[in-house]
Design goal:
single chain, 170 residues, alpha+beta, 36% strand
């Protein structure tokens, strides 16, 4: 039997009805400067602060990366596991492989003056994704014992923006 906040599995955690003024949606922007990827940046504490400041007691929080080469994932923050996951991403889409996206002689779409060769970062992102949604119970994200929220940088160091949207009842 697993439990959440001391309640047995299968029990209803929250059923609430409220007037419209009890329903809230908040979005907070979190900004980070990342290191070279793959790099796992633990943003759990920042997400917890955003949820607490929203005042939501029962609902859901979505953590969303606004980038195609930076992902959001939930996993364990254990150093050897982070090394394993980094190695797996590099093996799945090695930086030194050929990517048509990196062929600037042929590519004509979505080019910037400072464009870098990052086809591997986009391909690694396919395995991860842009967001995670987590139930909010008793005012906090209902993460498991070892679960942490990571911003996963897959490209070179740069500023990154994460949106934390909390929706629910106060």
């Amino acid at each position: 039997m697993s439990a959440l906040n001391g309640r047995p599995a299968g029990t209803t955690l929250a059923v609430r009805t409220a007037a419209a003024d009890k329903f809230v949606v908040t979005t907070e922007r979190l900004d980070y400067m990342t290191e070279a990827g793959p790099c796992f940046l633990d943003i759990t504490d920042d997400v917890m602060r955003a949820v607490r400041s929203s005042g939501v007691q029962a609902g859901q929080v979505t953590v969303f990366s606004r980038h195609t080469t930076a992902a959001i994932r939930i996993n364990e923050h254990e150093p050897l596991l982070l090394h394993d996951m980094t190695r797996m991403l590099r093996a799945a889409a090695p930086e030194n492989a050929y990517y048509e996206h990196n062929d600037f002689e042929r590519r004509t779409v979505n080019m910037n003056p400072d464009e870098c060769r990052n086809g591997h970062s986009h391909c690694q992102h396919l395995f991860l994704g842009n967001s995670e949604s987590i139930p909010v119970v008793d005012g906090l994200p209902a993460l498991g014992a070892y679960q942490r929220i990571f911003l996963v940088e897959l490209d070179h160091p740069r500023p990154r923006c994460v949106l934390v949207t909390t929706i629910g009842l106060r």
